[in-house]
Amino acid sequence: MSPIQAWTLVFVVLTFGFYIWIAYRSRVSDTAGFYVAGGGIPAPANGAAVAADWMSAASFISMAGLIAFSQNGYAGSVFLMGWTGGYVLLALLLAPYLRKFGKYTVPDFVGDRYNETARLVSVVCALVVSFVYVAGQMAGVGVVFQRFLGVDRTWGVVIGMAIVFLYAVLGGMKGITWTQVAQYSVLIVAYIIPAVAISLQLAGNPFPQIGFGQILGELDGLQQDLGLAAYTEAFTQTSMVNMVLITAALMFGTAGLPHVIVRFYTAKSVRAARYSALWALFFISLLYTIAPAVGAFSKYNVLTQIPGSAIGDTPAWFNTWSDVGLITVTDLNGNGIIDVAGAIGEGTELAINNDIVVLAAPEIAGLPAPIVGLVAAGGLAAALSTASGLLLVISSSVANDIYWKKINPRATDAQQLRVGRIAMAAAILVAGYLGINPPGFVAEVVALAFGLAAASFFPILFLGIFWKKATAAAAATGMAVGLGVTLLYQLWTLPTFFGNEPILDIPATGIGTIGMILNLITIVVVSQFTKEPSELMQQVVEDVRYPGRSELVAAHAEGHLGEYAEEHHLDDDR
Amino acid sequence: MLDVDQRREYWRRNVRIMSVLLVIWALVSFGAGILFVDVLNAVSIFGIPLGFWFAQQGSIIVFVLLIAFYVWRMDKLDAEFGITEYEQEVHHQ
Question: Out of B41, B78, B93, whose CB is closest to A232?
């Protein structure tokens, strides 16, 4: 066993043991604890949990590479702005009000505010988005185990499933939340340490966010010499209009994803929900401002060390990663030298997988084995924390939105809890299967999930709070229009499906913005012609807008809305 | 409890705070990071062209500051309207 493997094993065993201990300490016995941790998580802890939930294997492992290698540099900004900007929308437009509404899930809000059809559509959306996402996380766990511990991918996924099973099924939202706090700490330390070391090495500055400015000029020059667009130059790959469309789709999609929104229900109060959003974005921004620096540093290292060198005469880190097939060298012109001219990637002499940019960074910088092991543990923390959050959404959708609301409304708390646990166990099995045999379209679909969330959820949530007269029929129609347009266009253009030419050059990742606008317009128009929401519901929406105790909202949360309406002579005809 | 006029006033001011913050949100991301990126790139900050900096660093930093201002301002607004009681237990069936 190499020192790297030994250290990785130490960190993985330590962190996994820690997660399970936390889950055991915070195990739960009622549905409120299982779904929303009893609504009793302090804001900074809730923020760290949101950040861990949000930052998946993709954020931790792939994003730096996505910016620096798949894109020229600037074009990757869509991910940075899109995946953080959505939190401003969440904090200002949704989180406090949804928290005040005081239910367990997003379909709960949709179902209560509009009607049962809308609830059903949103349950299906939540389940589809969550399953697609969770499969990607399980696959990520497999990759880390395979590369760092030499464990077979299948066994890697099985170990990951077992760990998540233990703490998610046992502890529900409470266990998951406190575990995620620990996982955030592990992943952010694992991300910052190598980044600081590399920044010191290349720029002599301990802050990567500032240090990378020192090599950007040189990196621009390097790329131009090799016939690539300059790193900082705008609109060389993505037009201005498409930059706007993609960024907006990611922003509004972030604000509409059910597994993110549900986290604000775990806050103690409306005020705590606002603070949770602040803490969450602060914790996320630590990683998101460092990621572009890591990407730029890695690309600088690769471009100064690799192009023009003879095949076989490359640095040790380069050889380790080409051994596992994540770096591919193809000597197209047969001259024995790695030539980079005009492009890198598939079909050229040098192809580098996005995922190695972060995982290989400590090796490239020549850092000691413990740090490499720590990065592996960080990658696992990122993947597991996101997976457990998604599993909870799946389980609460099945147990709360389907079993309790549709199948057995008289179910006791214990029965619901049992169904929730069984649903979660089943979801883990399905997720594990998808992680071992990932369907080819998963990566594409994950990127598109944001467009779907933007086009379906955001408008109905936003108007549900800010416009009392948005009607149920309008919401259902709007959701159908937004989702339909977005989904059909994505299927129409994606190579794995129909692969047609984009219309007006609109990318599949940006169509969500168009779908969202159509959804908004549809709701506003259809609301003019359909039956107004009941007096009672308009009053609930009104009350949700103010913090502080409200009899009506409390009655609603407790499920005594009918009695309240009678008492106050409000029309409850929904 | 707030009376009807106070509620209207609270909501009006809340919407005003939100609108101002969202305008800034759009200006730093879609404005400085995308629409005006080429103009701003003529200037550099820490060696980073300014438009590029907004797209990869500045917008994220401003987003955090926007939410920080929002929670601080809303706390102040709540205090002005005498809202000190936040319900802790609204999670039931």
Answer: B41
- Say how many Å lie between the first and final Cα of chain A, rounded: 66
Burial B30-68 (b: 16+ CB within 10 A, else e): bbbbbbebeebbeebebbbbbbbbbbbbbbbbbbbebbe
pTM: 0.90
Q: How far apart are CA A282 and CA A44, in angstroms?
A: 10
Interface of A with B in 243-262 (CB under 8 A): 243-244, 247-248, 251
CATH 1.10.287.130 fits A3-303+365-439, yes or no: no
E-only strand ranges, A1-77: none
User: Where are chain A's structural domains?
Assistant: 3-303+365-439
User: How many Å apart are CA A301 and CA A327, to the nearest integer?
Assistant: 14
Domain extents in chain B: 4-80
CA distance A251 to A240: 17
Note whether ipTM > 0.90 here. yes
Give me the mean pLDDT over the A213-227 stretch: 84
Hey, is the C-beta of A300 within 8 angstroms of any chain B C-beta? no
CA A249 – CA A262 distance, rounded (Å):
20
Contact A188, A382 (CB under 8 A): no
Burial class of residue A192 (count of CB atoms within 10 Å of its CB; 0-12, 13-18, 19+): middle
- Closest A-chain CA to B50: A232
pLDDT-above-70 percentage for chain B: 88
- Distance between CA A136 and CA B3 in Å, rounded? 51
